Amino acid sequence: MLKKAFLILIITFAAVAAYAQTADEVYNQYLDFNLARLQGETDKALTLGQDIIPNADKLKDNVRNNFYYSIGNLFENDGQSVKAIEFYEKVAAAVPNYYVVQRALGYQYLKQVDELTKKLNATKSDPKENKRIVGLYEKAIKKTLPYLEKAQACDPNDDTLALIKLLYRNIRDTQALATLNTRLSALSKNCVDLLDDK
């Protein structure tokens, strides 16, 4: 009986050890993922990236941030906004001055604003439901704007600026609109345009 228990314990340990990946193995997978992505092999890169996700914590911080941005971008291009947002948010939390991910998040959240705009129009005949949607709409805009503002501050774009102003007008926030230039000036002080993956 004791031998049997010992044998089961050894087999279990061997199985766990065989399953666990080392940091070097995960990094090698990351290199394969990057190569596939750079060669335009999107499906392969997406599959490799999904294999890395459970072990991404074994990557160095800079490499992990780069990976999260890249896999988020692949999810975005694959029409998987929810997954894209999940990984973009990780990058934004780790490198808040990386305006590229800020812009990506702003435009992902803008999709939610657009969906709520459609619902606003569809609920005009139901005042109670319309009021509820208006609340969600305003909340979605307020979530979107900080990301767009950081992107605009670091990489000015007439279309983004016009969009920011439109969103503030849509929620009737004249004070935020009046102080926009001051905020953009402050946000432009610390901008990161490339992620280091070394």
UniProtKB/TrEMBL annotation:
Listed InterPro entries: TPR-like_helical_dom_sf (IPR011990), TPR_rpt (IPR019734)
Source taxon at top rank: Bacteria
Signal peptide: 1-20
Keywords from the UniProt entry: Signal, TPR repeat
TPR repeat extents: 65-98
Identification of the protein by name: Tetratricopeptide repeat protein
Species, as recorded: Mucilaginibacter rigui
